[in-house]
What we know:
- The protein folds into two domains: about 15-200 and about 405-420, Glycogen Phosphorylase B (Rossmann fold, 3-Layer(aba) Sandwich); about 215-400, Rossmann fold.
- Helices cover about 35% and strands about 15% of the residues.
- It has helices at about 30-35, 80-100, 120, 155-160, 165-170, 180-185, 245-255, 285-290, 310-315, 330-340, 350-355, 370-380, 385-400, 405-420, and strands at about 15-20, 40-45, 60-65, 105-110, 125-130, 175-180, 195, 215, 220-225, 230-235, 260-265, 300-305, 320-325, 345, 365.
- The protein starts with 13 loop residues before the first strand and ends with a helix.
- The model is unreliable at about 1-5 (pLDDT under 50).
Amino acid sequence: MPVALGPDTTTGMKICFVHQNFPGQYKHLAPALAARKGNQVVAIGEQKNLGRLRHPKVREVGYPTPRGASPGTHAYVRNLEGAVRRGQATARAAQGLSRDGFVPDIVCCHPAWGDGLFLRDVWPEAKLLYFHEYYYHGAGHDVNFDPEFPSSFDDVCRTGIKNANLLLAMQVADWGITPTQWQHQALPEDIRPRTSVIFDGIDTDLVRPKPDVTLRFGSGLKLSREDEVITYVARNLEPYRGFHVFMRALPEILRRRPKAHVVVVGGDDVSYGRAPPGGAKSYRDLYLRELGDRIDLDRVRFVGKVPYGRFLEVLQVSSVHLYLTYPWVLSWSMLEAMSAGCAIVASGTPPVEEMITDGETGLLVDFFDPSALAATVDRALDDADLRARLGAAARRHVVERYDLKTRCLPAQITLVEDVAANGMPR
């Protein structure tokens, strides 16, 4: 059977990125492809979220915020109705591009919110490369993982129906991409052979150790690599990222390490899962009230969400970095901590175990055991040679396998060009 030649990539391609919160995962890929001679790059996203990339060769096209599901819609399918509305808004923006004469050779789309549902109908000849971030499971992953926050039968059913949009998108896509082997194995069996595993990539030139770093606070406190600094980072402080386990380990950590300072980065919203129980304003408020005076707040600093440069300083000054997660999508911050040369104590959960080998590139503990977490932190802080060895090995691992410029971005570009030409990798 002859292989379709597709677009002539030597003279440039027309590429459309679709992400409701553009640039999202395309922060590096879109500019890299836009910089290639002859390429035309357009991005479609929700209007209110655009304008952050500000690249002169990436044209951004927005659509109005679609309204959500109707009040009377069955609870199980509200997510699907919202996805259909967003897919419709995306398709109308794509139709506008077609009327302006832009018909892409390839569309790179994150379809989780419904953006990719109708792009095949708008552009039947374009190749579709979809980002398969997560396929939901009613058991064995995040649902009912934590007995403290059990899922109801309705939760399980609703979780399964959340895949309806994803399955529709997967069926229209020519090819898929996902960041980790664990996420790949979570996909339906018939989708895995049409999905490549390529991580998003870490800029290891930027995210690197800095021995002379100083972290300053408004109180006048200055922390350096000479101090004992324990760090914890999450987009938001919530159970999905083990915040409750971390907080319950803190009293024992502080007791064992009387000179240690703890720096906590993260907001008080909820990214995943349910709102805090009992009317608490946030999970931080909930666990601060639970622990009371068992935590010395003079040595624990909740700094909220911080600019990226400040975030890097937190990692660079860290003596021991903690990363905990349900079996769920891996945080970029964990690999950034590895790239910064942190000695990491992490939960022995997937996909952490894919990135960290216990005793080699970090130390793994039972997610549900605050005592083990405290003891492992204490052990690491007692052994400077161990910390140095773990940090160096962690950075080396990320540089060799997940570096943005030398590994991940070139692989992503090659995949885009191959799919545009043939609908699949070479």
